[in-house]
Design a protein that fits this description.
Layout lengths: L23 E4 L6 E3 H15 E12 L3 E12 L5 E13 L2 E8 L2 H7 L5
Parallel strand pairs: 1-6
Antiparallel strand pairs: 1-2, 3-4, 4-5, 5-6
Length: about 120
């Protein structure tokens, strides 16, 4: 599997996101917000890219029918500090009509598995 470098442009990589009123990107961090629609999701990634260089390397992708579970390694490097962080994370992407309707990020792959109703 190859790594995924997230697009730095607000317009690239968004064609798979569903219409503005239904798309949500949600993190399970206690202080996390919900981002709705292409503009909010673009703003979220732009804010990340202001602070961090990011790379997400998927280690497992499971097709769950109308959803996809992704286990990945997130590698970040602070642009100001140079501090590097690497951690295992999980995502659950839900689809509608072939487009992403909801994407939820989890701090651990185990949390993503549990949210998808799965065990290891």
């Amino acid at each position: 599997m190859r790594s995924l470098r997230l697009p730095r442009s607000r317009t690239r990589g968004r064609s798979s996101i569903r219409a503005q009123r239904t798309t949500k990107y949600r993190s399970r961090r206690p202080d996390a917000a919900v981002y709705r629609g292409r503009a909010d999701i673009g703003k979220f990634w732009d804010e990340w890219h202001e602070l961090w260089n990011l790379e997400i390397e998927p280690s497992e992708i499971r097709d769950l029918g109308d959803a996809v579970l992704v286990r990945a390694v997130l590698r970040t490097q602070g642009k100001s500090s140079g501090v590097e962080v690497e951690r295992s994370i999980g995502y659950v992407f839900q689809f509608e009509d072939g487009l992403v309707r909801r994407a939820t990020a989890y701090m651990t792959p185990q949390e993503a598995l549990k949210a998808a109703g799965l065990r290891e």
